[in-house]
Amino acid sequence: MLKFSVLTVALSMAITPDMASASVIGFLGNFDVINDTGKTAHGFEIDLEGLHSSDITDTFGGAGRGFPSGRGFDPLTSVERYGAPTISEYANGATFGTKVTYRGLFDGASWDFGTPSGTFITPGDNCWSGGGVGYGPGTPCDHFGVGTTHNATKTTYSWLVETATPGVLTNGVVNLPAPVWNVTPSPVPAAPPVVAAHIQAPAPENNVEFGDALWVKVFTTEFDAPVGLEELVGDNSKIKEVENHTEVEWALLQIDNKNPDVGILDNGGDAPVGVNAESVIRRYEFYNYIGAYDPETHEAKFIRDPVLGYGDSNPAPSDIGNYLGAQNAAVNLNIAVVPEPETYAMLLAGLGLLGFMTLRRKIA
């Protein structure tokens, strides 16, 4: 009886949550994207540099997440026109990554599905069969998503448009920033971690100093349970809850080659999450900047009006263009229990006492 009681006390000490450290168990992202390439696209590609296929945990429209994985527009059989994506690894010297590819089927003469180019106003992540905006063959946007075990070193989104050769597709890059998460455990025992995220504006093109500008709005909230990829859609209660909590009303994002930090928006790094937080969701909404640019540097010359309050955090209506897309991004946290050193010592002492008593009983 004494043997049992010593073992019970020792093990109960070992699982006491004296110190907790946060680790990430998954990054998730779902988003609407509008085809503004000027051509009908026949697919979409998510290039995740620095990740292996084993790092992909979920895909929107893929099997195993409660989604129908068929092709087309029937909500009973499909969530988006291209169906489940393919997942393939690539390597180019020291660079490697994984591509998640949604693609139409070409029968030698025509494609089964395509996304027309155009403009579209959507209330958010609704360009899918359950989105409630009349998603169909004429809708110039689609909804895609992927879950990963950790951050990609670089994420590139591309519409796949047909070249001059029928059936052959090429990439048309989409300037939709991908959030990058950073989870920092607290140095204080049992304290929650700091969960930050940042997005970066598109890189400059054509050897100009500044890249293209875009407007962004950010919403966020925490939940006391993990979130799944299938929950990062517009009609889900969690996303509706997130939309009630504005983190950034408006911000202008634009990269400056001479000062790259200017084009990065950081959120959440000032304070730890709540003690019961098991997941954090951030929603990013992107809008085109249609104001003036400097003809030489390409710097955005947005309207500044102190009387009306217009500026880089409160745009004038004439500076806001079409809705480009939304990112619903989430991180699931795992609070791992780690005993204090004193607990380990007591555990070892308890097991040592158990061994001593067992040996003594054998000698007796």
From TrEMBL:
Residues 1-22 form the signal peptide. It comes from Nitrosospira lacus. This is PEP-CTERM sorting domain-containing protein. The keyword Transcription does not apply. It holds the Pfam family PEP-CTERM. It comes from the Bacteria. Keywords: Signal. Residues 338-362 form the Ice-binding protein C-terminal domain.
